[in-house]
Amino acid sequence: MNRSTPSKSAESRPATRTAGRRESAAARGQRTAAIVARLGRAYPDAECSLAFANPFQLLVATILSAQCTDKRVNMVTGGLFSRWPTPAALAAARPAELEAVIRSTGFYRAKAKNILGCCRALVDRHGGEVPDSLPDLVKLPGVGRKTANVVLGTAFGRAEGVVVDTHVGRISRRLGLTKQPDAVRAERDLVTVIPREHWIAYSHWLIDHGRAVCTARAPKCERCPLEDLCPKVGVKPKSRKKDRLP
C-alpha cells in the first residue's frame, strides 16, 4: 500500500456535490477528505511513470515530458543517460547531437536548450548536484513550479506543492476543487483543500485516474469511485439514442 494511502476512517458520510450549488467550507473539507480516501484505495500503487535512477535523471525526464507522453520520454532517456550519464557530461554535449536524440519528444530545440542550460547551472552553481529546495530549482533554466514539485516530491520525498499537469488540472476542475485553468493558480487552490501529507500522492492518483476512468472526452462516470462526490463540472450529459424508425 502507498504510504500516503488514507485510512478508511477518513471518509465519513460525505455530502453529494451538485454543480452550480454553493458549497460551504466545511462541506468541501468533508467531501475532499472522502475524495482523497477513495483515490488512495483505488490507486494504492500509483507512482511517477517516468523512468529514473536519481534526481538528475528525473529532472531531465520531466523537462522532456512537456507536451509529450511519459512512455515516449522513457523510450528516449535510456539512450540519453547512457551517452551522457552526469550533469557535467550532458552540459558538454553538442546541441545538435542532443537535439537528434530527443527529437521524438517534440519541441526538441527548446528542450535541448533548456536541458543544456540546466545542466550547466547544476555544474556551475550546485557542484553537479540537483538542489532539493524549491527556490533553487525554479532558478534553473527550463524548470518551473511543476517540474520542481515533481523532483522534490518524487526524488526527495518533499511535499512543497501539488504537481498540476493536464490530468490533475482537468479532474480537479471537474471535482469542483478549483476553477482555475492556470496551473499555478490551480495549485494555490489545491494546497488549501488537500492535506499536505497527500500532496505528492494526489497527483499520482489523479494521473492514473485520468488515464483509466476520467478521460478528457468520454469520462466513464458509471465506473468512477468518485461518482457521487463529483459535480461533473464541464461534463456533458450523455445523450440518449433515439429509437430508429422501422
Say what the CATH topology of the domain at 55-155 is: Endonuclease III, domain 1
Q: Considering DSSP H and I runs of 4 or more, what fraction of the residues is helical?
A: 40-55%
Sheet/helix structural class? mainly alpha
* Share in β-strands: under 5%
The CATH class assignment of the domain at 55-155 is Mainly Alpha
Q: Would you count the extended β strands for me?
A: 0
CATH architecture of the domain at 55-155: Orthogonal Bundle
Weakly predicted, low-confidence segments? none
- Tally of helical runs: 11
- The shape is elongated
Topology order in helix (H) and strand (E) letters = HHHHHHHHHHH
Q: Compute the average pLDDT.
A: 91
Largest sheet entry:
none
Kindly report the name of the CATH homologous superfamily of the domain at 55-155. Hypothetical protein, domain 2
> Whole-Å distance between the termini?
55 Å
Rg value: 20 Å
Give short descriptive properties of this protein:
mainly alpha; 246 residues; Endonuclease Iii, domain 2; Endonuclease III, domain 1; 0% strand
